[in-house]
Amino acid sequence: MSKGGDKVKKAVVKRDSRSRKAAAKKEVRRWIIGMIILAFALLYFFPILYMILSGFKTEAEAAVPAIFFHPTLVTWQKVLSDISMINYLKNTVFHVLLGTGICLVLGIPATYALVFARFKKEGRGESLYNWFVTTILLPPVAVLIPLYITFKELNLNHMRGGLLFLYVGFHLPLCIWLLYSFFKDVPEEVVEAARIDGCTNRQLIMGIIIPLTKTGIMTAGLLVAVFIWNEFFLGYNLTTNATATLPVYMARFGQQQGQFIAQLSASASISCIPPMIFGWISQKSLIKGLTAGAVKG
């Protein structure tokens, strides 16, 4: 019996040893993979980091590439005291806030109608939705000439809100496309029960649809805001210096300001940091929103 017990103990010890070795190998493999991923992340993020750091250099230090330097806020003070740059920033914030808000105000009831409205012809809601989606494929360059003529004739290029009409028109289909799958996940029984109880469409949207799809609404609003913030083509071709946005300012920086690397880096940081911070704060909602409804059944 003692010999049998010793054999069992040796087998258990050997099995535990193998398990520890396997766990150690797995941990080492995970650590190596993590280091490789971190190295690639640092490699891709380094240009952005260097740009941000260059904003804290003087022009003489920024002209010579170097990682170690004496940081200063002189460059940021020059950039933030530039009235023209602040005006470009105000224009961008104006379009992002109003454009995103209008897209959501129009997109939520429009998507509700496409999903839950009772059309006379069966399948009309899906056909209208497909029409909205296909408009996303239209490149802005295809309609640039008629838009340019319209803006010039109506003097819209001198108005801050001129681009707002275009941003809403171009991004409303995107908003509807993002909201559609979330609204489709809302059980029709809930909507029918609310209608039987006497709820109006407004009460349905405000009291049931929005609370149940708030993650999708946040996702749609975030993506629309980022797209409007980064939009360059329309702003570059259809605005003046007084009505242009921040990406246009960055493109015209060398012509207007000169070859000042430190100031350009600080201005570019102002253009990049807000969407980066906003995306980092809302990344959980964004990931949850984009993956919601991916697996059904």
Automatic annotation (TrEMBL):
Residues covered by the ABC transmembrane type-1 domain: 89-282
Localization of this protein: Cell membrane
Gene3D superfamilies the record matches: MetI-like (1.10.3720.10)
GO cellular component, one term: plasma membrane
Membrane listed as a keyword: yes
Location, primary (coarse class): membrane
InterPro entries: BP-dep_ABC_trans_perm (IPR050901), MetI-like (IPR000515), MetI-like_sf (IPR035906)
Annotated Pfam families: BPD_transp_1 (PF00528)
Membrane topology classification: Multi-pass membrane protein
Keyword Transport assigned: yes
Keywords tagged on the record: Cell membrane, Membrane, Sugar transport, Transmembrane, Transmembrane helix, Transport
Cross-referenced PROSITE patterns: ABC_TM1
Spans through the membrane: 31-53, 93-116, 128-151, 163-183, 204-229, 260-281
Superkingdom classification of source: Bacteria
A biological process from GO: transmembrane transport
Family the UniProt entry places it in: Belongs to the binding-protein-dependent transport system permease family. MalFG subfamily.
Name under which the protein is recorded: ABC transporter, permease protein
